[in-house]
Amino acid sequence: MIWAMMFLLLLLMLLRAPIAVALGLPALMWLFLQDLPLAVATQRIYGTLNNSVLLAVPMFLLAGRLMNLLGVTERIFDFAMAVVGHIRGGLGHVVVTASMIFSAMSGSAAADAVGVATITVKAARERAYDPHFAAAITLAASALAPIIPPSIIMIIYGATANVSIGKLFVGGVLPGLFFGMVLLITVSVLAARRGYPKGEPFSVPRLGRAFKRAFLVLLTPVIIIGGIFGGIFTPTEAATVAVLYVLALGLWYRAASWRAVYREFVSAGATVGVLLLVVGLSGVDGWIFTYEQLPVVFADAVSGAVDSQWAVMLLLLAIVLVLGMFMDATPVILMAAPVMLPLVKAAGLDPVHFGVLFCIMCVIGLVTPPVGVALYGVATVTKLPMERVFWAMLPFFFALLGGVVLLVFFPQIVTFLPGLLIQ
Hints:
21 helices, mainly alpha, 0% strand
């Protein structure tokens, strides 16, 4: 019966049914055919959502939307332009740098991609760059958002897999910086081969003006990450602090009306409602998978195929990447993490190391067709063909995958800071 349920679930996803329907309908069918009370679904939905950690999700999502509304992205972009815009292919370096800063505030790849893409492509056309190249860098750099803390999908993963969110956040710092360097090196190589121009010469007065204009914005990640690392507040409380600080910036800059802020609150609420419905329904699916001992079956199958730790890790991450090409990160986490975690523990893998790489692979899936949320977002706001944006992004795609493989064999890049800072 479980295989019929899995087949129906995958079929509904391939048919582009709403994710809540794809997760909920097969679960209800299974309960009905097993002659179990449908009240089990209600109990599991409530039990899944009755988790204070999930309060951080709507807050970080709202913070990201408010940053775009209040012009925060533009100030970050100008500061990055003053820092690295003078290098050959400077626009690409600016995009990566701006995305790294924005990532430490929003925690959302979609927010990062949409927020930076409009400014990037406009600047590309003004500076005689290929706009598809600029959009591709923006798309690739958006993958940094859920790696560099805070991260919405790390919160969901931590709540689902019962892994410390604080350790996941800290574990994402060095990989986030590492992937930023990977993208910067890739930009340099492509810019040199294609003969892209240099930007305006470096100017200390210009840097000073840009820094002064962006100073309060740049304090956002310092407050969020510093507060978490310093034990001043939890990741959940940090999300509320982020929203309050961004609202304070809006008042200081007088960048938007209260009516526009209210619309963002309503829009974020609607988005969170859909997201948490999916999270709740996934709790029903997870209970069914456990009831049918699917994690044990999966673990036996994988253990029979590979026997070394690194091979297990690479195989699981490859499965996550394929799933991420067809689903958003949240349902991938909610469906795959409970099934994979027993195997991760049995193989002796560090759950924080695996969790950070799991989230990275989910995000790489967001930038790939056929169901890449970030890819659609960038193509929509830049009015560029989705296919051409993805083809332009391929060098960055392979660079990101290469970085993941390196992190598999050097887990210390992920585990060093959590072991040092969080006991």
